[in-house]
Amino acid sequence: MSIIKVKTKLDEYRYRAKSADINELSGRTNRSDITHFVNGEIAKRMEFKQGDIVVDIGCGDGTLLEIAESEGSFGIGILPSEEEVTRVRDRFLTNSDRIKIEQGLASKTELPDEVANKVVCNGVFLLDEEDVNLALKEISRITKPNSFVYIGELCFRDETEGKNYGDSILKWLLWVLWNQGGGEFLSRLKQTLRAIFTTEQMLILPKSHYYCTPEEFISRAKSFGLNINEHFPHKSISLNNEVIKSSSRQDYIFIKV
Description:
This protein is α/β, with parallel strands linked by helices. Helices cover 36% and strands 26% of the residues. α6 runs antiparallel to α7. The model has no long low-confidence stretch (mean pLDDT 89). It holds the Pfam family Methyltransf_11.
């Protein structure tokens, strides 16, 4: 049995780096289609072009960096654990000299000042208020003036509300069935059975996360020199490939002053 309870986000992604499927580093189990869709949407908004220096903080499996490279950009991916860095570096080792993967945090990338003219940080702001402030300060530091910053999948309400299944896998599966439908239930059931009967791992994750209203977040970002350009509901896709607008997550594009 390979069902593992993890206590921190860092531990979570260390385990994900061991998965046979590199898409696990995106945090979207068995849904690489969502990873490609979400990163495609980010690329459209950010309009990567020849000569851009793109920094993707929390770059997952590197999909966005590949898209940026195809447009002539140079990409730097930041990942928090040595295990993730090694895994994603191996992916690009023989395929690209325009993508670098470095170890660091949203709050401490170890990159030079004003190194990038496009910075992306999607699905990373899930920690506490202090970490978010440090991350905004760091993102502002590494971004060139008049350049764009994309911060995505930031929750504006508590997504754990009503999820009273705790660490019980059975209660979780029933919650998925009642709230997300039969297709998602079957997908999660298969995932559970693989974890029980094979070496494929399944993680039981922490239940708390950071969230704030768009007004609060825009004001906070402004105090770090990031002025709002636009914000909009985060978009994903269903199992039937239908586009879904999130009822709990917002995406933001800022301009560094």
